[in-house]
């Protein structure tokens, strides 16, 4: 339990996308022969970051999408599948930090759940600051395995020239009350974050280990982008077990309903 620690969820607008990418749910996104003529179902895919203030340091969890997404993502072709087109000026990460009275240099750590372009999109904001950039060792290793500018939603421009510190295994009390949980499957090195707060209790931020409540189930529903399905399922159960044990609030990576039910910054936070 970390006295004096606060958690601020920074909503950063939304991408829009065909729900089939997010939920491979038979009868929902997958058309039957009776529904094959129905149009594709496009939904909001919201994105958020989390600011954790502790007595021993200030941490940002994930960095959302960049302002120049349309040009930056062009090599991948994914800008047409996941346009970041539901974002207002005050929702970009740099605006959100300003609303919290912060500039990139005020962060001690920027920790990445994984390095997909909608989580590492603003990593370059922290270049040449004192912020230490942190991701899992497995994610970092994997990002050095491919040639060319991108592989799926991993885009080298997001993290080129940056130095990362890595964590491996589950990391308890990285800062007071803040732990990282290895939850691979979505990508080789996807992590979730656990924060133990005196009033709220435990919060678990799943990032893309669990996209949304409908993915969590039970039953668990996978997504179109999964690096390793077996790891994906076992990571969801790892989160579920921990959540049940700690009676945690589980915050999903891209849940269009949940983000509006949470207490969000700059107005609200969790203590
Ligand atoms: Zn992802």
TrEMBL record:
Residues 46-254 form the Metallo-beta-lactamase domain. Keywords: Hydrolase, Metal-binding, Zinc. Its cofactor is Zn(2+). One of its GO terms (molecular function) is hydrolase activity. Signal peptide: none annotated. InterPro entries: MBL_superfamily_lactonases (IPR051013), Metallo-B-lactamas (IPR001279), RibonucZ/Hydroxyglut_hydro (IPR036866). Pfam families: Lactamase_B (PF00753). Gene3D superfamilies: Ribonuclease Z/Hydroxyacylglutathione hydrolase-like (3.60.15.10). Belongs to the metallo-beta-lactamase superfamily. This is Glyoxylase-like metal-dependent hydrolase (Beta-lactamase superfamily II).
